[in-house]
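Feature request, filed as a ticket because there's no other form

It would be nice if the structure record came with a short human-readable summary line next to the tokens. Right now we just get the raw output. Example of a typical job, pasted below so the devs can see what we mean:
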Amino acid sequence: MIASLIYDSISSIVNSDKKQSVVIVGGGATGVSLGGVLSDFINESKKSDSISVTIIEALPTILSGWDEHLVKKVEELLREKGIRIRIITSSPVDRVENADGDGSDICLSDGKSQIYSSLTIWTAGIKGYDIPINPEVEKTRDGKIIVNEFCQIDRYPNVFSIGDIAAVRDENGNLLSIIEEKDASESEKKIKEVNDGLYVLIKNGFLQIFKKLKKDHKGSFI
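Raw output as currently delivered:
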């Protein structure tokens, strides 16, 4: 339903004779992926000179928490799209003004910056559910639980944390979100190994391990 609405709105913009501006609020995985897809769609329409795409991120970088090399590579790929795409970081959105059928003004928190938007797509604010754990466990600034290479919480080895709620340290101590890339570079292999490790753990004997743990204490997924 949402994808259909976005497609219809973009199609309307592409078919317009006026200059248009698409603003994506949120530079996480969803916002960046959407920006790339829209870039391809606009390029295919031959309207790249009249349509701009802006990604606004409140934090200092897009894809916060991801490997620095991977972030730079994504930025390079976006620039190579060949359309007028720009990334604004460290700029939380404060409010939206003058919203009507033709567009709106996106006002940033610095009190000065204002961006006209023909179409605004909100992809910010997605994060894992905050589960209170006592005694407390180590978490990232945005609330992700830090796990080991098997997605176990160090203080609770019988508890496994996966998905948006988890993060892992690489060999340099940097915190990374748990993702999986088919063609992982050297800097991304740690992330892939975590997912492969969990896959092996689940598919090749996890049930037996879980049953063994359950004899003495309960095991949990979060």
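Something like this underneath would help us a lot:
The CA atoms of residues 128 and 165 lie 4 Å apart.
The helical segments are 2-14, 29-44, 68-79, 189-216.
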